[in-house]
Amino acid sequence: MRFIFRLLALFALSVAVVMAVIDATRTVAADAWTFTPLGESWRGTWPETLASLQRFLEGSRAPVLWDPVMTFILTLPGWLVFAALALLLFAIGHRRRRPGGSLIISR
């Protein structure tokens, strides 16, 4: 199971790097800080999935998930959202070391 989380973390990190390079290129071209919000990138890539997610969340029993939560996330830079997701997925898939578990003391 840890392998799946690490693989998803690697995918999310790859998307974050691609989005950061795109924003860096736009920043250099415009000679000013430029960040592309996740919502704008999503609308440009797969607009029908964003609309269907909005319909699903507004029609579900928790419409509050769309208005304050998702609208805030969609205004953040895309590279930041995917980098945070990669960090979260890597933390879930991280193997914790046991204290003193790998140390063998012989006399």
Explained architecture:
- The protein has 107 residues and is mainly α.
- It has two domains: 1-34 and 78-95; 37-76, no CATH class.
- The chain is 71% helix and 0% strand.
- The protein has five helices and no strands.
- It has helices spanning 2-30, 38-45, 47-59, 66-75, 78-93.
- Helix 1 runs antiparallel to helix 5 (78-93) and helix 2 crosses helix 3 (47-59).
- The longest helix has 29 residues, at 2-30.
- The model has no long low-confidence stretch (mean pLDDT 90).
Features:
107 residues; mainly alpha; 2 domains
Short description:
With 107 residues, this protein is an all-alpha fold. It has 5 helices and no strands.
The topology string of helices and strands comes to HHHHH
Helical percent range? over 70%
Query: DSSP helix count?
Result: 5
Proportion of beta-strand residues: under 5%
CA-atom Rg in angstroms: 19 Å
Q: Which stretches are low in confidence, meaning pLDDT under 50 for 5 or more residues running?
A: none
- What's the number of extended β-strand segments? 0
Taken from the alpha-carbon principal axes, the silhouette is flat
Number of domains: 2
- What is the terminal separation in angstroms? 38 Å
- What oligomeric state best describes the polypeptide chains here? single chain
Q: Roughly what is the average pLDDT, rounded to an integer?
A: 90
Largest sheet geometry: none
SS-based class: mainly alpha
